[in-house]
Structures are given as C-alpha cells and as structure tokens.
Amino acid sequence: MQQVRITRMTAEDVDEVSKLEQIVHPNHHWSKNSFYNEIANKLASYYCVKDEQNKILAYIGFWQIIEEAHITTLAVHPDYRNLQLAQILLIKIIEDCYENMIKFITLEVRESNIPAIKLYEKFLFTSIGVRKKYYQDNGENALIMFTQNIWYDKFKNNFGEIKNNIKKVIVNDK
C-alpha cells in the first residue's frame, strides 16, 4: 500500500466524495448538497483519505455536540477495503475528540454490516440498542453503538495499541 494522507474535506472534494458515496451506497446515498451543508456546519468535521495522486479513497464525518461525538458517515472505496483506511479515519476522529475534550462517541450501523461492527468493536464500541427500520432504502434496523468514556484507561490503552499498529499513514490536517 502506498502512503496516504488525511485532509479536511473541502468543497473541492465534494464531487469526488459524492461519486464514492454512490458507489458505496448505490440505493440510498447522500446528495452533494448534503456534503456541502455538512462541511459548512460548525458542529461537523469531515475528512478524506487521499492517495499520492490525490484520489479520495475513503471519508468520514462526525458532529461534536457538547461532550459527545456522533459519527455520521464512514465510507471506503470497495477497491481499497481491508487496508486499514477506516481505522486511520477512526484514529483521526478520536484524536479530534481528545483535542476537544469529548468524552463519548456514538454511531449507527446496519445490523447486517458485520465487518463494520467488528471494526467498531475493535475500538471498544458496544451496541446499546436498535433503531427499528432506520435505513430508508430497505427498512433495515441500525445498531446504536457507543464508546465508554474515551478518557478511561481501558479505552486509552486500547486506542494506543491500535494507533501503534498503523504505520502506513501520513496525517496532513490542512
């Protein structure tokens, strides 16, 4: 795997992100306007993983509300899965949470998305409930996943171990 970098999502990225969104979620995807609105939202932070040719391979977004972060979206291009890109993005989000004194992180994930659930569990997310018929494209339920307080030693130690095992990334937060 070549080196990658993380950048803040900008308006210039939206066309490519939108195309990736349609590949990853062909039946129900966010519009370009949704991404423009999100990157303009003061509560939101969105990031892209880009390769050496500046191609967007993955992206993530989250909202920070008081002492909680809510991951709104995470997608990795199918050709670049299993290369730790989702882990790299989660690390970036968690680092932001530490910088902003966030205590908890939450998200929803499709019940059928076992690889994503396993990834989140690796980061010590646990399922705390179900949102019935959450997904509009097929009425699938969503698991509500939540971290313990990220300032607790168990979480910090686990996060440190994951972070130390990721050696493929250049973080460029521009």
Give a concise summary.
With 174 residues, the chain is of the alpha+beta class.
What does this structure look like?
33% of the residues lie in helices and 31% in strands. The chain has an eight-stranded mixed β-sheet with strand order 6-7-5-4-3-2-1-8, sandwiched between helices. The protein is α+β, with helices and mostly antiparallel strands and 174 residues long. Helix 3 links the parallel strand 4 and strand 5. The protein has one domain: Aminopeptidase. The chain starts with a strand and ends with a strand.
Strand order of the largest sheet: 6-7-5-4-3-2-1-8
The 3D shape can be described as globular
Broad structural category: alpha+beta
SSE topology string:
EHHEEEHEHEEHE
Q: How many DSSP helices? A: 5
Radius of gyration: 15 Å
CATH topology: Aminopeptidase
Q: How many angstroms separate the termini?
A: 22 Å
Report the count of strand segments. 8
Outline the biggest β-sheet.
8 strands, mixed
> What would the average pLDDT be, to the nearest integer?
91
| CATH homology superfamily name | Gcn5-related N-acetyltransferase (GNAT)
The count of domains is 1
Strand content: 25-35%
The CATH architecture assignment turns out to be: 3-Layer(aba) Sandwich
Helix content: 25-40%
Low-confidence runs:
170-174
What is the C-level CATH assignment?
Alpha Beta
